[in-house]
Amino acid sequence: MSEGVHKPLPQFPGGPDPELPIPRDPVHGVDLGTCAAIAAQLSARRDPGAPSSARFQLDEARWTGIEQTWMLRIATAALKGDLSFSQEYDSAFSAARDALHGAEVSLATYAAVTARIESGQPASEAMRAEGCGPGLRAGAAQVGGQDRGLGGGPHAEAQAKLSEERAKLGS
Questions:
Q1: pLDDT at 49 over 80
Q2: CA–CA distance from 2 to each of 5, 7, 17, 19, 99 (Å)?
Q3: Taken in order 31, 33, 37, 42, is the CA torsion positive or negative?
Q4: How many other C-beta atoms can be found within 10 angstroms of the C-beta atom of residue 87?
Q5: For residue 99, which of 37, 14, 24 has the smallest C-alpha distance?
Q6: Which of 17-26, 45-54, 92-101, 124-133 has the lowest mean pLDDT?
Q7: Predicted local confidence at residue 104, as pLDDT
Q8: pLDDT tens readout for residues 128-149
Q9: ∠114-120-126 over CA atoms, to 5°?
């Protein structure tokens, strides 16, 4: 193939024409961010299938079509070198997942909240005082082994930080 010759991009079956701008208009009223939020909600459910929430009012067939259309748009855009679709989807999915499950917090924040709760402060007040939402959770890498009673590494660091926070509160 000689230089300067444009090789056409393949078109995914059912996907948008890669030679045209990738559409960003909503699919059946669902924009990319909402698609990601619904996907996050579904990933949090124990029983897979269509969203049951009245907020979305989607049956399984409609949801499948919406999700497939957006995934084809994301893939076609990536094929063209445009990662903005996937970045927008990932960002919206992560934000929705974190809203459902709670974002991970630092070990210092986790220890501060724990110490406040141990000192008798209601959990909701302790989390609010440390700037956390109701879904507070510390990453496994941050407190790994704490429940298994490991004698070093993250467990020792977690215990040290918790002791430090307890001392600050006078517990």
A1: no
A2: 6, 10, 24, 20, 51
A3: positive
A4: 11
A5: 37
A6: 45-54
A7: 65
A8: 777 765 555 554 444 443 443 3
A9: 50
| Cα four-point dihedral sign 45, 46, 49, 51 | negative
**Which residue shows structure tokens 């990536």?**
78
Rounded Cα–Cα distance for residues 43 and 51 (Å): 10
Cα 66 to Cα 64: distance, rounded to the nearest angstrom: 6
Q: Which two tokens stand for residue 43?
A: 């990933």
C-alpha to C-alpha distance for 115 and 163, rounded to whole angstroms: 8
What is the signed CA dihedral for 60, 32, 29, 27, rounded to 10 degrees?
-70
pLDDT digits (tens, 9 = 90+) for 5-24: 667 888 888 889 999 999 99
- What phi-psi label fits residue 160: left (phi over 0), alpha (psi between -120 and 50 degrees) or beta? alpha
User: What are residue 27's DSSP bridge partners?
Assistant: 30
